[in-house]
Specification:
The chain has 6 helices and 5 strands. With 167 residues, it is of the alpha+beta class. It starts with 8 loop residues before the first helix and ends with a helix.
């Protein structure tokens, strides 16, 4: 069990008692604390964190995504309290050992996503918007060769994130 630390009173009251464990999967830089039936995500306020909050509120049970239980901003941090979704991540060892099963599950998931009516989506994500976000990330030095797929840079690939963006 890990101590969560200082959080806004509104979220602490909704959080309830632990135990909570720290989730270290992913590269978002967010702090994720998982309880039995809820998850608290703490991260620096930014465009992506705001989009995530808006998108989680939107599906209205169109998809099996976490329900937003609470939200607060304090200083430069965002605190997003969500219900915990049942199931397993596809990076679980038994899925990695059974690529056919993993492929079937991914296919079913994509099929479900493609059937969602996106009318009224609060964050339409056009290619133009994605490229503008990528341009900001590259300019801020947030894209590194180490975080990319191995074949992205080097022989047969791009020289730099700037070259990739230009392409």
């Amino acid at each position: 069990m890990e101590k969560i630390g200082e959080i806004p009173r509104k979220i602490r009251e909704m959080l309830g008692e632990g135990p909570f464990s720290r989730d270290t999967i992913g590269l978002s830089g967010a702090q994720i604390f998982c309880g039995e039936d809820r998850v608290l995500k703490i991260e620096t306020l930014g465009e992506e964190s705001r989009r995530e909050y808006e998108l989680l509120k939107w599906p209205d049970r169109k998809l099996p995504v976490p329900r937003v239980l609470g939200y607060a901003q304090q200083g430069e941090k965002q605190y997003l309290l969500m219900s915990r979704v049942e199931g397993e991540m596809l990076c679980a060892p038994h899925f990695l050992k059974d690529p056919e099963k993993m492929t079937r599950l991914l296919s079913q998931a994509f099929s479900t996503l493609w059937q969602v009516d996106v009318t009224g989506c609060p964050c339409p994500d056009t290619t133009e918007k994605k490229l503008r976000r990528a341009e900001k990330r590259v300019a801020a030095g947030l894209c590194t060769r180490e975080e990319a797929e191995p074949e992205t840079y080097g022989p047969g690939g791009f020289d730099s994130p700037e070259r990739l963006l230009l392409w």
